[in-house]
Amino acid sequence: MKDFHGKVAVITGAGAGIGRALALELARNGAQLALSGRNLENVAETVALCEKEGAKARAYRLDVADRAAVYAHADEVVADFGKVNIVINNAGVSLTANIEEVAWEDLEWIFGINYWGTLHGVKAFLPHVIASGDGHIANVSSMFGLVACPSQGGYSSSKYAMHAISDALRQEMIIAGYNVGVSSVHPGMIKTEIAWKARAAANRSRDDLAANFDRLAQTSPEDCARVIVNGIRKNKPLILIGKDAKAMNIMRRLLGSGYMKPLTAQMRKEI
């Protein structure tokens, strides 16, 4: 997709962070925007910022874990904009807990949003993206959708699953001959509030975990958005964001399952 002008882009999790930055980046590139999130007030703020850039934008309240709501949202967006070219499944949450200690309720919560939320978005919007004749779907996974890390088993498994959806769908679109690109997006640590809204095991301090995340995060949401939009423009199957994500990918490719040895050693020092 070389040109975003006049294209209709759907972005979930658009009330802040990467989602808001994506909306603004696409607005500056001439796209029209259907923006959603659970907090409608925050999404409305994003809409106002996009309108200042001259873009047509609309805010929707949406819980991506609610399948019926996502399908209804797809119908509403098509009614409002007439078409859908781009879908960015960005809504996501985080969870820190060892497999031994993690609560089932927390696993169901994170899979409901990260995995099922992504699949709901893909399935609900795919017919419309195909019908547009020039479409793209980007699913925002994580660097932990490339490698698994101690205390991130629930989070990593939900993000690995998103990566699998993206890779399978990309191949299916090619085989079917549809002009629909698919990208799996893998950010490293981005300076957003995701860690402050995360869940953690009872024996862990969320504030301490979030403060440590903030200390390590080096990439801004704006830089992240620019990389994603450029990756969509170039129809990249894999979009890596940040030195940390690129390092994880290199380690995975060079060492195979051997990546776990240095990662385990490093995590042992930090725990």
Structural class: alpha/beta
Report the sheet-strand fraction: 15-25%
Broad shape: globular
Distance between the termini: 44 Å
Number of helices: 9
| Spatial extent as radius of gyration | 18 Å
What is the fold named in CATH at topology level?
Rossmann fold
| Residue windows where pLDDT falls under 50 for at least 5 positions | none
CATH architecture: 3-Layer(aba) Sandwich
Number of domains: 1
**Would you state the CATH class?**
Alpha Beta
Report on the structure:
It contains nine helices and nine strands. It is α/β, with parallel strands linked by helices and 271 residues long. It has a single domain, classed as Rossmann fold, CATH 3.40.50. Strands 3-2-1-4-6-7-9 form a seven-stranded parallel sheet, with helices on both faces. It has a two-stranded parallel sheet with strand order 5-8. Strand 2, helix 2 and strand 3 form a beta-alpha-beta unit. Helix 1 packs parallel to helix 2 and helix 3 runs parallel beside helix 4. It starts with 7 loop residues before the first strand and ends with a helix.
Short note summarizing the structure:
It is built from nine helices and nine strands. The protein is an alpha/beta fold and 271 residues long.
Secondary-structure map with pairings?
Layout: E1 8-11, H1 17-28, E2 32-37, H2 40-52, E3 57-61, H3 67-81, E4 86-89, E5 95-96, H4 104-132, E6 135-140, H5 153-176, E7 180-187, E8 199-200, H6 206-216, H7 221-233, E9 238-241, H8 243-255, H9 260-270
Parallel strand pairs: 1-2, 1-4, 2-3, 4-6, 5-8, 6-7, 7-9
Helix pairs in contact: 1-2, 1-7, 3-4, 4-5
